[in-house]
Amino acid sequence: MAEKKSDRTRAAILAAARERFGADGYERATIRAIAADAAIDPAMVIRYYGSKEKLFAAAAEFDIRLPVFTDVPLASLGETLVRHFLGRWGGDDTLRVLLRTAVTNEVAVDRMRGIFAGQLAPTLRAHALDRPDVRAGLVATQMLGFALCRYILELPPIVHMRDDEVVSWLGPTVASYLTAPAPSQA
Predict the structure, then answer these.
(1) What angle do helix axes 52-59 and 42-49 make, rounded to 10 degrees?
(2) Which of 19, 22, 50, 74 has the most CB atoms around its CB within 10 Å?
(3) Rounded to whole angstroms, how far apart are CA atoms 107 and 99?
(4) Is 5-59 a CATH 3.90.660.10 domain?
């Protein structure tokens, strides 16, 4: 079945919005600029998405697509998670756009929290020894911190690391967040 014109228009708006939000951030990106990038009238953006905030929410929709980890040996869990995140960060710029925007915008912060609380925490609960929300949060700090340095700040040593090298460095740290005994509260 042929794609409808409205579907193509909606897709063009989302692609332009992701690009514009990523380049300019939420505050500086405008409906007018996004419409120009999509080669449509600004009224069409409002027609399809209603507001800049709703457009951002649609553009920032992201599924981290965590695999089922039940068959992954505990010793390999950290490396498997890091490799998965590297693939998701590298294969789809939506999460990078969201991260860049979250640095300065509360709407994006809420969206990022929702993604990690709704997708990462429930998946990791089965593998954490205790305090699964804290442990999932620590995994998020590691992966988001790495992504910030590699994709947003573009720190040269981090940008140029091979994925296998990243997995070797970060895998054990991520694994320890999930499997090491919690530090003493003394």
Answers:
(1) 70
(2) 22
(3) 11
(4) no
For residue 154, name the pLDDT band (cuts at 50, 70, 90). Answer: very high
For 158, other C-beta atoms within 10 Å of its C-beta total 15
- The identity of residue 66, as a single letter, is L
* C-alpha span between 115 and 181 (Å, rounded): 26
* pTM for this prediction: 0.77
CA dist., res. 48 & res. 41, Å (int): 11
Q: Which letter, b or e, does each residue of 111-121 get, where b requires 16 or more Cβ atoms within 10 Å of its Cβ?
A: bbeebbeebbb
State how far Cα 40 lies from the chain centre. 28
DSSP state of 126: T
